[in-house]
Amino acid sequence: MLPEPHRLRRHSDFSLTVRRGRRMGRRDLVVHAFDRAQADELVSSGGPRFGLVVSKAVGPAVIRHRVARRLRHICIDLVDVVPRGTDVVIRALPGAATASSRDLEKQLRAGLLRLDLLAPVSNSA
């Protein structure tokens, strides 16, 4: 389970991130990111917060919950690497229902990398 301080809960936070943040589309996910320091209002600048949007287009409830659980698990590993004060909304597309957890993680990391929220992984051996 994603710890409470790292979860987006309010509709206004989701809306702000989706409407005013930057967006990067991948095959099975769309990643929206918003730097809370850019907000007009005074907002706490704690660690990164993640929110999920998994609509009925993804599939029936069992599939939607499975996709959400996979994405939450991936987000737990990203808490320490995404910059503080960043809100991230992950919107699952219908293909996420059949994608493996590894594919979802690759797509999410690629989206965050393109949004300059992750450092590139060096393959030095």
Give the topology, please.
Elements: H1 11-20, E1 22-25, E2 29-35, E3 49-54, H2 61-78, E4 86-92, H3 101-114
Parallel strand pairs: 3-4
Antiparallel strand pairs: 1-2, 2-4
Describe it:
- This protein has 125 residues and is of the alpha+beta class.
- It has one domain (4-115): 2-Layer Sandwich (Ribosomal Protein S5, domain 2).
- The protein has 3 helices and 4 strands, in the order αβββαβα.
- It has helices at residues 11-20, 61-78, 101-114, and strands spanning 22-25, 29-35, 49-54, 86-92.
- It has a 4-stranded mixed sheet, sandwiched between helices.
- β1 (22-25) and β2 (29-35) form a beta hairpin.
- 29% of the residues are buried.
- The mean pLDDT is 90.
What would a concise description of this structure say?
With 125 residues, the protein is α+β, with helices and mostly antiparallel strands. The protein contains three helices and four strands.
